[in-house]
Write the structure tokens for this entry.
Amino acid sequence: AFITTGGASTAPWTFHGRLQTYINKTLRYPGHYEWFLAYKTLGLFSETPMQIGDCTLKPRDFYHALLAPKIVAKEGVRDLAVIHAIGRGKKAGQEAEVVVDVLDYYDEATGFRAMERLTGWHAAAMLIFQVSGRVAPGARPQETAVPPAEMLDALRGRGIAITVRD
């Protein structure tokens, strides 16, 4: 596992002064971290245009053109996605802990991968919240935009298994 940001990128500012430690790690397939570190080290994420012969291109565009056809899931590959979160602190002056587990699988009925479901369904739920007026228009951190219980209910309604233990 390695430290990532992604969907949790605004949380350190949102929870500044309220958390002592905030760590978000990602576990991918073996070698993922090393491959992407090599791409970064080579400068392939740069958006600064460079001249190569008669062509001007951004390394990131070149990288995407090469990588995209290689990372399409092979037919028949089924994934799963796991989220395990632990929160420790004080509640009503007492030491407390909450554990949240999310487990999702490839959906045979829709053809959506677990990763697509976990990244797409919350975006769809947020759109529904905005269209219905439960969330004001505009950008805001996802961790403050909607009460967590409402988002969890929306995801459960789409068949995503979520357990909360405290």
Residues 114-131 form the longest helix (18 residues). The first strand starts at residue 2 and ends at 3.
